[in-house]
Automatic annotation (TrEMBL), chain A:
Organism listed in the record: Rhizosaccharibacter radicis
Higher taxonomy: Bacteria, Pseudomonadati, Pseudomonadota, Alphaproteobacteria, Acetobacterales
Descriptive protein name: NADH-quinone oxidoreductase subunit J
Compartment list: Cell membrane
Feature: compositional bias, Basic and acidic residues: 236-248
Origin superkingdom: Bacteria
NCBIfam families linked to this entry: PRK06638.1-4
From TrEMBL, chain B:
Membrane topology: Multi-pass membrane protein
Organism in which the protein naturally occurs: Rhizosaccharibacter radicis
Taxonomy of the source species: Bacteria, Pseudomonadati, Pseudomonadota, Alphaproteobacteria, Acetobacterales
Transmembrane segments: 36-57, 89-109, 121-138, 144-163, 184-202, 222-240, 261-281, 293-312, 319-339, 351-368, 389-408, 428-450, 470-489, 524-546, 625-646
A UniProt-annotated Pfam family: Proton_antipo_N
InterPro entries xrefs: NADHpl_OxRdtase_5_subgr, ND/Mrp_TM, NU5C-like, Proton_antipo_N
Subcellular localization, as worded in the UniProt entry: Endomembrane system; Membrane
Residue stretches making up the NADH:quinone oxidoreductase/Mrp antiporter transmembrane domain: 138-425
Protein name, UniProt field: NADH-quinone oxidoreductase subunit L
Domain of life of the native organism: Bacteria
TrEMBL record, chain C:
Enzyme Commission number(s) of this protein: 7.1.1.-
Subcellular location(s) of the protein: Cell membrane; Endomembrane system; Membrane
A GO MF term: oxidoreductase activity
Family: Belongs to the complex I subunit 2 family.
Primary localization class, coarse: membrane
Catalytic activity line of the entry: a quinone + NADH + 5 H(+)(in) = a quinol + NAD(+) + 4 H(+)(out)
Quaternary structure and interacting proteins, as annotated: NDH-1 is composed of 14 different subunits. Subunits NuoA, H, J, K, L, M, N constitute the membrane sector of the complex.
Source organism of the structure: Rhizosaccharibacter radicis
Protein name as catalogued: NADH-quinone oxidoreductase subunit N
InterPro entries in the cross-refs: NADH-Q_OxRdtase_suN/2 (IPR010096), ND/Mrp_TM (IPR001750)
Lineage: superkingdom: Bacteria
Record field: transmembrane: 6-25, 32-51, 71-89, 101-118, 155-177, 189-212, 233-255, 267-286, 322-341, 362-385, 397-418, 438-459
Length: 248, 647, 475
C-alpha cells in the first residue's frame, strides 16, 4: 500500500506542476509537451484508482491524437505568441483578482465539506455481478442505460464533423479530375471542327469565308476555351467566383 | 296635459334640431336652406311655446315634469333630463323663443351682407336659444348648470363670431372667463346644496327647506347659516351671468358680436338667467334675509353705476348695453325684496323693448355701414322713418313714460322698494328713482343725437337708407310689445290674477307682503319716478337740441368726473391691476420655474441620464473576447458573492 | 423501457441523417431548396409526433415527456420552421445556399427538443451542446465574410467558457448531491438534511451557464456581435428557438429539482433580470444597425420573460411561457422584415436604410411598425399580453422593484422601437425602393403579422396550454 501512496503523490505532484507549466511556459511547443506529461500522470492516477479503461483512453485519445494535433497546429500556424502574451499580461491583474475571489469563495464553502466516513459504493445500484471489469461495466452502462445520451453524443460529433466540412472544404474548379464516362461518350464531332484557312489569314479570322474548304481540325470554341471546361464535380457557378476571389 | 308636455318639448328641442342641422349640415345644404330651417324651427318653437303656455294656463295645473331621459345615476346622486313645466318656466320659454324667433328673422336680413357663409351664425344662435331654454326648463340644479354653461359657451362663440377681429376674440374670452369665475361660486353653491339636502332636484329641495333652516357652517371659528352661504353663492353665480356690479365688465365688451347677438344676449337670454335663477330658487332665498339684502345692495348699485356710465358713452350700442346693466339692477332690487313677480314682469317687458332698441340700433348701424359713434350721426329721422319711430317707442318704454311697457314694471319695482321700507328700502328707492331720471336722460340723448338735429357727417348721412322689410318686420312686432306689453301683462304678472297665474311656481314667505302693499303706495311718492322721467326727457332736449354746447362745457368743467364716467369708473383698469397682472406674473413664474425648470427638467434629466447610460454601456462593447469573458467572470463572481452574503 | 417516448427526437434525427445523405448524393443540382423543404416536412412530422407522444419518464431517468416539454417543443419547432422558411430566399441571394444549412438547423432544433425533455443534468448538457455546436457553425456559415467567421468564433469561445462553467456547476451539484437526475435531486433537497453550500454554488454556476445562452446581463456580451456578424437568416433562428429552449432548461431546473430552494435563487434571477432589462433598453438607444438593435431588444425581452421565473409562482411561469410564445412570433416577423431590406441585390442592415419606407413600401412599413409596437408592448398587439402577465405575476409575488424596473425599461424601450417607426414614416426616403420582396419573406411576415395583431383571439388557448405546462412543471 505504501508503494501506491508514493506513486499517488508522485503522479499528483508532477500533474500539478506540469499543469502549471502548460499555462506559464514561454515556448508553446514546450507547453504542449507539458500537457502530454500531465496526461500521462493523470492516466497514472486513474490506474491507481483502478479505472484502467479510462487511463488507457486518456493515453490513446488525448496523448495519441489530441495533443499531437495540438502540436501540429502550434508548429504549423504562424501565431505571434509574443503578441498574445502581451494581452495576457494586460489582463493578468484583473484575471488574478477574479481568480482569487472565486477561489476564496469556493474554499470558504467547500472547506466545511466533510467526507463521508464510509461511503456507500456508487455503482451498487446497477446490479452488476462482482468481478466484472470496469471496461465491461462501462460498456453495459453506456450501451444500455445511457444509450439515449450515447446516441445524442454521437449526433454532437456528427454535427462537429459536418461543421468541419462546411467551414473548410472547398472544391477547387482548377483541379483536374478525370470523368471516364464523359470521356468515353465524347465524339470528335462534338468538340472539333474542320477549319480552312485562306492564305495569310489568322486562325481567329472569319470562319464563314473559308467554310467547306480543306483545312485543319480545331475545337469549336477556339483553343482558349479548352482549359475552362470544368469537370463534372463543379457544383455551382457561384463557387467559381468565390474561389477565384478568395482562393488560397 | 299630454299635449302641453309634447308642445313644451317641441318648443325646447326645435332650436336644438335647428342648431344641429345648420351646424353639422350647413355646408351641405347651403346658406339659404340653413336660414329657412333655422328660422322655421324657431317659428315652430315660438308657436309651441305660446300654445303650451296658453293650454297650461287654461288647465291651471301644478308643476308638471316631462321626463326625457336619465343622465347621471351614481350612488345617491341622481340627475335626470327632465323638462319642468310651470308658469315660471313656461313664461320664460315663451318669452325666450318669441324674442329669439324675431331675432333669427332679423338676422336673415342683417347678416345678408356677410362675405362668408352664415349657417354657422344661425347654428350658434339656435344653440344659444336651446341652452337658454334648457336652463329655464330644468328640473334640477345639474340640468340648470348644463344650460347655464351652454349659454356661456354659445355666448363665447357668438361674441367671437367675427374671429378675425382681435377685439371680438378678446371680448369673447373676457365674457367667458368672467362668467367662469362667477360659475365657480355657483358650482360651490350647488355642491353645498347637494351636501345639505342630498339631492339636486328642485321639488325635493323645496319640500325639505323648512327642515334645514337652522343648519349652519363653521368656518374660521365663526358660524354661518347654511342658507345665507348658499344664497350668496348662488347670487354670485347670477351676478356673473346677469352682469351685476363687479362682474359687469364683460357685458359692454360683448358688443363686439354682431348686433342680433347683442340683442339676444341683452334682451331674452343669458343676462336674464340670473334673475330667473333667483325667482326659481325663491323657496330657498326667502329663508336667507342677508343674502337678499346683498341682492338689493348690489342691484341698486349696479342700477346707478351703469346709468351714470351710460350718460357719457359715445357708442350707440354701448349706451344701450349699459342701460341693460342698469335695468337688470332694477330686477335684482325687486328680487331682493322678495318681489320676484315684479322682477319677472320687468324682465319680460324689458325683453321686448331692449330687443327692440338693439335691433333698431342695428338697423341704424346697418344703414350707416357699421358706424357706431353717435357723434357722427344726427338727423336720420327723415332717412330712417320706421327705425326712428320704433326706437322712439323703445325709448319711451325704457324711459318709463306712461303708458308704455317699462312704466308699468319699473314703477311697480320702485314702489315695492319704497313699501319695503327701512334703511335698505330707502337706499334702493333713492338710487332707483335717480336712475329713472338718468335713464330718460341718456335714452333721449341717444334719440336726439342719432335722429334729430343736423347731420354731423354729411357723407354718412347721404348714404343712409332704410332697412329692408325682413329687418323692419321684427322691429314692428317688438314695438307693439314695447308699447302695450306692460298694460296687457300687468294683471297677470303682478295684478289681480297673479296668484292664479304663477300658480305656486314662485314662493313668497308668509311675512312677505310686498305684493299686497304695492297698491298702497302714497300718491306723490308713486308719481316721483314718472315726473323725474319727464324731467330727464326735458333736460335731454335742452342739452342736445336747444343748447348743444352745455354737455361739452360740463365735460370740460368737470373733467375728472367726466373721465371717471367715460372710463366706466375705471373698473377695467382696477381689475387689470388687481387680478390680471398678478395672475400673469404668477403664471410667468409657474411657467419659467414650475414648468420649464421643474416639470421639463425632470424628464430632460432622465433622458440625459438614459442617453448617458446608453453610451456608457455601448462603450463596454469593445468586441474583444477577453473583455467579454472577463465581464462574464466578474458577473459570476458578483452573483456568487451576493448569494453567499445574502444567504 | 418505453422507447417511443423519444419518438419525435428519433424521427427528427433519422430525417436529419436522411436529408444529409440526400444532400450529399444529389450531385446534379444544388439541393439546398429541396433539403430545406424536407427539413420543414420533418419539423411538421415531428410536431405531430410531439403532440401525440405519451406522457411519462424513461431512458433511465434521462428523459421526460410532459405538458411543459410539449409546449416548449412546439414553440421550438415553430420558431425553427419559420427560421427555415426565412432562410430559403435569403441564402440563395447571399450565395450561401448549401444543403448543410437546413441540416444544421435541424440538428440544432433537435438539441432544443432534447433540452426541453431533459430529466437529468447530463441530458441537459448534451442537448445544450448539440444545439449550440450547430449554431456556432451556422454563425460562421458565410465563411467568406470576415464578420460571420468572427461571430462564429466569438460565440464558440465564449460559449465554451459558459459550457465550462455549466459543467463545473453540474459536477459540484453531482458531487454534493450524489445524483444528476432531477427526481433524485429533488429528493435530496427535500430530505430535510442541511443544505450543502457546494450544492447552491453549483446551482449558481448552472444558472450562469444558462444565462449565457439566454444572453442575460452580464453574460450577454456576445449577443450584439454575434447577431450582427452572423448571416441574418441565422440570426433569425438564433434569436428564436434556442432562447425558448434555454428558458425551458432554466425553468425546469429551477422549478423541479431546485424548486424548494426558490427562496435562494429568486434573488439571483431578480438581479439578473433587472440588469438585463436595463441593459437591453439602454444600450439599444444608440444603435444604428438594426440587427444589433434586435440583439439588445432580445436581451431586454429575455429580462422581461425572466420576471415570470423570478416570481416563482404558477402564474409567473405561465406568464413567461406566454411571453416566449409572443416573442417568437414577433421575432420571426421582424426578421422577415429585416431580411426584406435589400437594394440592388445588396442586403442592408442600417436603420437609416429604412427611411421613407412608409412611402416606398407601405405594406412592409406597416408590418414592421406592427412588430415594433408589439415588441414595445402596445395593446392590443401580441407583445402586450405577455408583458401584462409577467408584470402581474411579479406584482402578485410582491416583487415591486422588479415590476417598477420593468415598467421604466418598457418606456425606454418604446423610445427605440418608436424611432424605427418614425424613420420609416416621417423621414424622407434617401434611396429608392427595396428590391422585390421574396415570397418566403412575405409569407412569414404576413402570417406572423396577422398572428401579432389577432393574438387576442388565440390568447385563451395559448394561456390554457401555458397554464397546463406550468402545472406539469410544478406537479
Amino acid at each position: 500500500m505504501i508503494l501506491t501512496q508514493i506513486a499517488f503523490y508522485l503522479f499528483a505532484t508532477v500533474l500539478v506542476l506540469s499543469a502549471a507549466m502548460v499555462v506559464s511556459a514561454r515556448n508553446p511547443v514546450h507547453a504542449v509537451l507539458f500537457l502530454i506529461l500531465g496526461f500521462f500522470n493523470a492516466a497514472g492516477l486513474f490506474l491507481i484508482a483502478g479505472a484502467e479503461f479510462l487511463a488507457m483512453i486518456l493515453v490513446i485519445v488525448y496523448v495519441g491524437a489530441v495533443a499531437v494535433l495540438f502540436l501540429f497546429v502550434v508548429m504549423m500556424l504562424d501565431v505571434n505568441f509574443t503578441q498574445l502574451r502581451e494581452g495576457v499580461q494586460r489582463y493578468a491583474p484583473v484575471g488574478a483578482a477574479i481568480g482569487v475571489v472565486l477561489l476564496a469563495e469556493l474554499v470558504f464553502t467547500v472547506a466545511r465539506w466533510q467526507v463521508v466516513p464510509h461511503p456507500a459504493p456508487i455503482a451498487a445500484g446497477n446490479g452488476l455481478p462482482p468481478g466484472i471489469t470496469n471496461t465491461e461495466a462501462l460498456g453495459r452502462l453506456i450501451y444500455t442505460d445511457y444509450v439515449f445520451l450515447f446516441q445524442a453524443c454521437g449526433l454532437v460529433l456528427m454535427v462537429a464533423m459536418i461543421g468541419a466540412i462546411v467551414l473548410t472544404l472547398r472544391e477547387r474548379p482548377s483541379a483536374k479530375r478525370q470523368d471516364v464516362s464523359k470521356q468515353h461518350a465524347r465524339m470528335p464531332a462534338d468538340t472539333m471542327e474542320m477549319m480552312s484557312l485562306s492564305l495569310g489569314a489568322g486562325t481567329t479570322g472569319n470562319h464563314a469565308l473559308a467554310a467547306g474548304r480543306d483545312g485543319f481540325l480545331r475545337p469549336h470554341d477556339g483553343y482558349g476555351a479548352v482549359a475552362d471546361e470544368g469537370g463534372p464535380g463543379v457544383r455551382a457557378p457561384e463557387d467559381h467566383e468565390a474561389d477565384h476571389h478568395h482562393g488560397a | 296635459m299630454i299635449t302641453v308636455a309634447s308642445l313644451f318639448s317641441v318648443a325646447v328641442f326645435a332650436p336644438l334640431l335647428g342648431a344641429l342641422v345648420t351646424g353639422l349640415l350647413g355646408r351641405v345644404i347651403g346658406d339659404p336652406i340653413s336660414r329657412i330651417v333655422s328660422v322655421g324651427l324657431m317659428v315652430v318653437s315660438a308657436g309651441c311655446a305660446v300654445a303650451a303656455l296658453w293650454f297650461g294656463l287654461a288647465a291651471s295645473a301644478q308643476a308638471v315634469a316631462v321626463p326625457v331621459s336619465t343622465w347621471v345615476q351614481a350612488g345617491g346622486f341622481h340627475a335626470a333630463w327632465t323638462l319642468r313645466f310651470d308658469t315660471l318656466s313656461a313664461s320664460m320659454v315663451t318669452m325666450v323663443s318669441c324674442v329669439s324667433m324675431l331675432i333669427h328673422l332679423y338676422s336673415v336680413g342683417y347678416m345678408s351682407h356677410e362675405k362668408n357663409p352664415v349657417h354657422r351664425f344661425f347654428a350658434y344662435l339656435s344653440l344659444f336659444t336651446f341652452a337658454m331654454l334648457m336652463l329655464v326648463t330644468s328640473d334640477n340644479l345639474i340640468q340648470l348648470f348644463f344650460g347655464w354653461e351652454g349659454v356661456g359657451l354659445a355666448s363665447y362663440l357668438l361674441i367671437g363670431y367675427w374671429y378675425d377681429r382681435p377685439s371680438a376674440v378678446a371680448a369673447a374670452i373676457k365674457a367667458f372667463i368672467v362668467n367662469r369665475i362667477a360659475d365657480l361660486f355657483f358650482m360651490v353653491g350647488i355642491a353645498l346644496l347637494f351636501l345639505l339636502f342630498g339631492t339636486v332636484s328642485y321639488d325635493n329641495i323645496f319640500a325639505t327647506v323648512p327642515e334645514h333652516v337652522g343648519a349652519s357652517y363653521r368656518l374660521f371659528g365663526t358660524s354661518f347659516p347654511a342658507f345665507e352661504v348658499i344664497g350668496v353663492l348662488l347670487f354670485i353665480g347670477a351676478m356673473g351671468k346677469s352682469a351685476q356690479l363687479f362682474f359687469h365688465t364683460w357685458l359692454p365688451d360683448a358688443m363686439e358680436g354682431p348686433t342680433p347677438v347683442s340683442a339676444l344676449i341683452h334682451a331674452a337670454t343669458m343676462v336674464t338667467a340670473g334673475v330667473f335663477l333667483l325667482a326659481r330658487m325663491s323657496p330657498l332665498m326667502e329663508f336667507a334675509p342677508v343674502a337678499k339684502g346683498l341682492v338689493v345692495v348690489i342691484g341698486a348699485s349696479t342700477c346707478f353705476f351703469a346709468a351714470t356710465v351710460g350718460l357719457v358713452q359715445p357708442d350707440i350700442k354701448r349706451t344701450i348695453a349699459y342701460s341693460t346693466c342698469s335695468q337688470l339692477g332694477y330686477m335684482f332690487v325687486a328680487a331682493g325684496f322678495g318681489f320676484y313677480q315684479g322682477a319677472m314682469f320687468h324682465l319680460t317687458t324689458h325683453a321686448f323693448f331692449k330687443a327692440l332698441l338693439f335691433l333698431s340700433a342695428g338697423s341704424v348701424i346697418h344703414a350707416l355701414h357699421d358706424e357706431q359713434d353717435m357723434f357722427r350721426m344726427g338727423g336720420l329721422a327723415r332717412k330712417l322713418p320706421v327705425t326712428c319711430a320704433v326706437m322712439w317707442i323703445g325709448s319711451l318704454a325704457l324711459g318709463a313714460i306712461p303708458p308704455f311697457a317699462g312704466w308699468w314694471s319699473k314703477d311697480a319695482i320702485i314702489d315695492g322698494a319704497w313699501m319695503a321700507g327701512g334703511g335698505l328700502g330707502g337706499f334702493a328707492w333713492t338710487l332707483c328713482t335717480a336712475v329713472a331720471f338718468l335713464t330718460a336722460l341718456y335714452s333721449w340723448r341717444l334719440l336726439f343725437l342719432v335722429f334729430h338735429g343736423r347731420p354731423r357727417v354729411p357723407e354718412l348721412h347721404d348714404h343712409a337708407h332704410e332697412s329692408g322689410p325682413v329687418i323692419l318686420l321684427p322691429l314692428l312686432v317688438l314695438a307693439v310689445g314695447a308699447a302695450f306689453g306692460g298694460w296687457l301683462l300687468r294683471p297677470w304678472y303682478i295684478g289681480e290674477h297673479q296668484a292664479a297665474f304663477w300658480n305656486g311656481s314662485i314662493f313668497n314667505a308668509p311675512d312677505n307682503h310686498v305684493l299686497a302693499t304695492l297698491e298702497h303706495t302714497q300718491g306723490l311718492i308713486a308719481l316721483v319716478p314718472t315726473i323725474l322721467s319727464f324731467l330727464g326727457v326735458a333736460v335731454a332736449f335742452v342739452c342736445y337740441m336747444l343748447k348743444p354746447e352745455i354737455p361739452a362745457q360740463l365735460a370740460r368743467s368737470m373733467r375728472p368726473l367726466y373721465l371717471f364716467l367715460l372710463n366706466k369708473w375705471y373698473f377695467d383698469e382696477l381689475y387689470d391691476r388687481l387680478f390680471v397682472r398678478p395672475y400673469r406674473a404668477l403664471a410667468r413664474l409657474l411657467w419659467h420655474v414650475g414648468d420649464e425648470t421643474v416639470i421639463d427638467g425632470v424628464p430632460r434629466g432622465l433622458a440625459r441620464l438614459t442617453v448617458g447610460g446608453s453610451s456608457g454601456i455601448v462603450r463596454i462593447q469593445t468586441g474583444s473576447i477577453a473583455v467579454y469573458a472577463f465581464t462574464m467572470l466578474i458577473g459570476l463572481v458578483v452573483l456568487l458573492s451576493t448569494f453567499l452574503l445574502v444567504r | 423501457m418505453n422507447w417511443t417516448l423519444a419518438l419525435p427526437e428519433i424521427v427528427l434525427s433519422c430525417s436529419g441523417l436522411f436529408i444529409l445523405l440526400f444532400g450529399v448524393l444529389q450531385k446534379r443540382s444544388e439541393p439546398s431548396f429541396a433539403c430545406t423543404m424536407l427539413t420543414l416536412v420533418a419539423f411538421l412530422v415531428t410536431g405531430i409526433l410531439v403532440v401525440v407522444a405519451p406522457d411519462g419518464a424513461g431512458y433511465h431517468g434521462q428523459f421526460v415527456n410532459d405538458g411543459f416539454s410539449r409546449f416548449m417543443k412546439i414553440l421550438s419547432l415553430g420558431a425553427a420552421g419559420l427560421a427555415a422558411i426565412l432562410s430559403l430566399d435569403y441564402n440563395r441571394q447571399e450565395k450561401t445556399a448549401r444543403f448543410e444549412f437546413p441540416v444544421l438547423l435541424l440538428f440544432s432544433t433537435l438539441g432544443t427538443l432534447v433540452m426541453a425533455s431533459s430529466a437529468n443534468l447530463m441530458t441537459l448538457y448534451v442537448g445544450l451542446e448539440l444545439q449550440s455546436l450547430a449554431i456556432y457553425i451556422l454563425c460562421a456559415f458565410a465563411r467568406d465574410e470576415l464578420t460571420s467567421a468572427e461571430a462564429g468564433l466569438k460565440y464558440f469561445v465564449l460559449g465554451s467558457l459558459a459550457s465550462g462553467l455549466l459543467l463545473y456547476g453540474i459536477s459540484l451539484v453531482y458531487g454534493f448531491a450524489g445524483t444528476m437526475e432531477y427526481a433524485g435531486l429533488r429528493q435530496v433537497l427535500t430530505g430535510g438534511a442541511p443544505l450543502a453550500a457546494g450544492l447552491v454554488i453549483g446551482l449558481v454556476f448552472v444558472i450562469v451557464g444558462l444565462a449565457f445562452k439566454l444572453s442575460m446581463a452580464p453574460f450577454h456580451m456576445w449577443t450584439p456581435d454575434v447577431y450582427q456578424g452572423s448571416p441574418t437568416s441565422v440570426t433569425a433562428f438564433l434569436a428564436g428557438a434556442p432562447k425558448a429552449a434555454a428558458f425551458a432548461l432554466l425553468l425546469r431546473v429551477l422549478a423541479q429539482p431546485f424548486g424548494h430552494l426558490a427562496g435562494q435563487w429568486q434573488l439571483l434571477i431578480e438581479i439578473v433580470a433587472i440588469a438585463t432589462m436595463f441593459l437591453g433598453s439602454l444600450a439599444a438607444i444608440g444603435q444604428r444597425d438594426i440587427k444589433r438593435l434586435m440583439a439588445y431588444s432580445s436581451i431586454g425581452h429575455m429580462g422581461y420573460a425572466a420576471m415570470g421565473i423570478a416570481s416563482a409562482t404558477d402564474a409567473g411561469i405561465r406568464g413567461t411561457l406566454v411571453y416566449l410564445a409572443t416573442y417568437l412570433i414577433m421575432n420571426a416577423g421582424t426578421f422577415g422584415c429585416i431580411l426584406a431590406m435589400r437594394r440592388r441585390g445588396r442586403a442592408l442592415t442600417r436603420i437609416e436604410d429604412l427611411a421613407g419606407l412608409g412611402r416606398t413600401d407601405p405594406t412592409l412599413a406597416v408590418l414592421m411598425a406592427v412588430f415594433m409596437f408589439s415588441m414595445a408592448g402596445v395593446p392590443p398587439l401580441a407583445g402586450f399580453f405577455g408583458k401584462l402577465m409577467v408584470f402581474a405575476a411579479a406584482v402578485q409575488a410582491g416583487l415591486w422593484v422588479l415590476a417598477a424596473v420593468g415598467v421604466v425599461t418598457s418606456v425606454i424601450g418604446l423610445f427605440y422601437y418608436w424611432r424605427i417607426v418614425k424613420v420609416m414614416f416621417l423621414d424622407a426616403p434617401v434611396a429608392g425602393a427595396f428590391d422585390h420582396r421574396a415570397p418566403s419573406l412575405s409569407f412569414v411576415s404576413a402570417v406572423t403579422g396577422v398572428a401579432t395583431v389577432l393574438f387576442l383571439l388565440v390568447l385563451g388557448p395559448v394561456t390554457g396550454a401555458a397554464q397546463a405546462a406550468a402545472a406539469a412543471l410544478f406537479g
